[in-house]
Amino acid sequence: xxxxxxxxxxxxxxxxxxxxxxxxxxxxxxxxxxxxxxxxxxxxxxxxxxxxxxxxxxxxxxxxxxxxxxxxxxxxxxxxxxxxxxxxxxxxxxxxxxxxxxxxxxxxxxxxxxxxxxxxxxxxxxxxxxxxxxxxxxxxxxxxxxxxxxxxxxxxxxxxxxxxxxxxxxxxxxxxxxxxxxxxxxxxxxxxxxxxxxxxxxxxxxxxxxxxxxxxxxxxxxxxxxxxxxxxxxxxxxxxxxxxxxxxxxxxxxxxxxxxxxxx
Length: 264
Hints:
By secondary structure, the protein is of the alpha/beta class. The chain has one domain: 3-Layer(aba) Sandwich (Rossmann fold). The protein has helices spanning 39-46, 65-73, 86-98, 115-118, 143-149, 155-164, 181-191, 246-254, and strands spanning 16-21, 26-31, 55-59, 78-83, 104-107, 122-127, 166-177, 193-201, 210-216, 224-225, 229-230. The strands form two sheets. Strands 3, 4, 5, 6, 7, 8, 9, 10 and 11 form a nine-stranded mixed β-sheet that branches. It has a two-stranded antiparallel sheet with strand order 1-2. Strand 8 and strand 9 (210-216) form a beta hairpin. The longest helix is centred in the middle third of the chain and has 13 residues, at 86-98.
């Protein structure tokens, strides 16, 4: 639906919509043109095994989709989001107010974090880094969309910054395109241990298109590559193109957690 009242000093009302996440448990204002959160940040948030009383940092929070879905699923977290684009940072703050959820949003570049973030260590740090290497792809025309999908910060920097902000034994979590898994793992192995990879594929028999990756500060457990989670029922799209399986349906429509290994 279109927005009826101002939500951001930086986005014109006519250019915003309010979209339902978690079956309407979270309502997010997003630009009609620009970067829009979809399924991927929701799956990432659902995969974070945080507990009440823990601290969580999201790098590149955009309009707040992932952080606010996490806050709705788990009460008692202390959540901080860092966002480079001021208009999206403002939107994330207003989205937190709209949903009556606590989220401290910091307008900053992850390459130059302010003291209020550098002075903390977090139990969980997560990010949905830009999916595209612009050395091998074409930039988006919209600045906000391009920053979300491309950007100038390499994957290795996202991983390095996340690892430095972790408390001892803290976990870092990422979602990324499957074709960039090698790049992501090469960075994660430098900083983290107890690494796990959860592939996600659209249909049975298809290659994975997304991966969830997490690692632990000073972790010593063996590397684990989990069996893929197949997101949709059936071999092809039918009139109901969003016929998610039980696991994904529970995550997207009811705010359930997403366990690595594919169990509810």
